[in-house]
Automatic annotation (TrEMBL):
InterPro entries per the UniProt record, alphabetical: AGP_Transferase, Kinase-like_dom_sf
Recorded coiled-coil stretches: none
Region (Disordered): 476-511
Protein name per its UniProtKB record: Aminoglycoside phosphotransferase domain-containing protein
Amino acid sequence: MAFYPCAIANCIYDALIQENSCYACRKRFCFHHLSHPLHECSVGEGRGTPGLIHTLAEEYEPETSQILECLSTDMIKNEVESLRPGHLVENVELTNTWRDLASNYLQGQSNFHIKINFKDGISWFMRIRRRISRNYTDEPMRMNMESEVATMNALHDVGVAVPSAFRKPSNSKIHPKLIYSYVSEIPGGPWQPFYTSIGRVHPLPDMSVNHVRSLAKWFIEMQKATFDKIGSLHHNSQTSEVEVGPAIGRYPYQSTVPYYNGPFRCSADYWLDLIDSRLRLIRERRYCRHSAEIWLYLGLLEIREIVEGCEEMRSTGPFYIKHDDDQWDHIRADESTGEVTGVIDWEWSYTTSKAEAFNSPAGYVPDLFWNGSNEGYSPREIVLIEAYASYDRPDLADCVKNGRKYHRLVDTLRWMQFLPLHINSMRRAFLGLPDDHPGLPEDEEKCIEVLKEKYKDVEGLKYLLAHPFDLSNASQQVKAIRPKKKSMGPKTQAKKVTEKAEEGPFGENGD
């Protein structure tokens, strides 16, 4: 959900949800202005300069400098020692410059990490949310962080190898704009042999076999945490017990309270609610650029029909936790043995059916998956299936054998880059059809025409077709809004730079 207003002054619409900021000017635009002449740097459909590479400062500033201004070693030290009584901090690896924070090997796309070392050899991380990767405001971001902590707490409490996690203390002295938690360090690192195609195409060497078998044991332990609804975990405000609440996905469903929907009684209800939310946003011209809206709308209607017809997704529990970004690199392992030491990064996780939760990780799918094939398993998946069988868990082996439908569903709805290949592959996966079973025309234009006819009575589609994008009054808007500008002299430029530098870490009033 985009919480940013359109960059055009006085425009009443929000920036599009699916569109990132323009590559050239770094601004966000609404449906009407993305490829409008008022967006002066637009190329093609407002995408800015293709291939433009931004500097480190453009990618990270001023956020990194602002974060450092809000922190001190003593602040962090006092806070973590209160969370771990009786244990003293040896040092906090807090850098002095924004560049060091931005380029630190510990940083990811969505979070900054500051390492804290205790005198007994234990290490924690202060995990701070990055704002550039989230087009929304503080409250849904806090809900997201709270859910991640609750998820790790629930798994840790039943003995699953995940980080210990701690919420920001209610009496914290650290600036309220920083949204963060503390997590313990998991030893080991990503299983490096899986960085290549080993295990997706070629048979696994013995050490990697041991790694996958260890992961099977980890999943078996995870089954101890069960829930009665589908959604994301949070702490009950009265009892502090972990319970299921709204599904806190990658984007809020709306820009006002309660931000997210749920919890849900079954997997089908969860996915249909997500699909219906996107259909509504496309119809309201709030989701995507005009050139994509018809195809995305039609694709979502097809996926809706597929999900609605899946009886397996009507199961009403019990439900289990699903990692929302289960690539190979979030699975930590001992580099000398391959043994799994834990799984990290539980942001966006949710509870779901057994069939989806114990499917093979997304990082285990075979290379042919990306060409539309549902047939066969990767060597990684084969070892996982065999491991479950050897541990007398044929039920979990069946989750891997029959789980391709969930890979298709999650991947397609996450990236929203529909092609006939994606829709056909998903339908075949859900219906158990072979790869060569005929589907929609592979030509996109022909496919669109077929789907237009199929869904011609859907009101949302009828509206979009009857109200195409119109730029006929664009030139008049430009003349009215943008009279010829005077150039800014060097003294004025210097004054503006000075004024900006004198602002506080989050503006003049810290908001």
